[in-house]
Structures are given as C-alpha cells and as structure tokens.
Specification:
Strand order of the largest sheet: 2-3-1-4
InterPro entries: Heavy-metal-associated_CS, HMA_dom, HMA_dom_sf
Oligomer: single chain
Distance between the termini: 11 Å
Number of strands: 4
CATH topology: Alpha-Beta Plaits
Order of helices and strands: EHEEHE
Keywords: Metal-binding
GO molecular function: metal ion binding
Mean pLDDT: 96
CATH architecture: 2-Layer Sandwich
Number of helices: 2
Low-confidence stretches: none
Shape: globular
Protein name: Cation transporter
Radius of gyration: 10 Å
Structural class: alpha+beta
Largest sheet: 4 strands, antiparallel
Strand content: 25-35%
Length: about 60
C-alpha cells in the first residue's frame, strides 16, 4: 500500500477524479481517499512515481507520505 499526501481535495468529485486517474493507468488498483486527512492510499502494481504523475495530471499537489 502506497500513501500520498494530496492538497486541494475537498469533495466527492475530487475522490472520483483521483480514483479514475489512477485506475486509468492500473484498472486493478485499489484507491482509498481520505478527504479529512488529505491522503490517498493506493494498492497497485504501479511504481509510486507513476501514481504521483497520475494524480498531478488531475491538477492536485501531491507528495509521497
């Protein structure tokens, strides 16, 4: 499980956008978004930098936790 700190998430649309962005690169990825903690946990075969890039492409500021 990889954990990322993501700034700018505030609603269900954000959750959907991030989940779809990661799953576009790995359809089997399990994405858990915690809006309150501003974290995203991803279980995926993708390397962390690929997940970071997918989230950045959606316009969010993201870093490895």
């Amino acid at each position: 499980m990889q954990t990322f700190n993501v700034q700018g998430m505030s609603c269900g649309h954000c959750v959907k956008a991030i989940t779809q962005a990661v799953q576009a690169k790995d359809p089997a990825a399990d994405v858990q978004v915690d809006l309150g903690a501003k974290t995203v946990q991803v279980q995926s075969s993708l390397p962390a930098d690929a997940v970071l890039e997918a989230i950045k492409e959606e316009g969010y500021e993201v870093s490895a936790a």
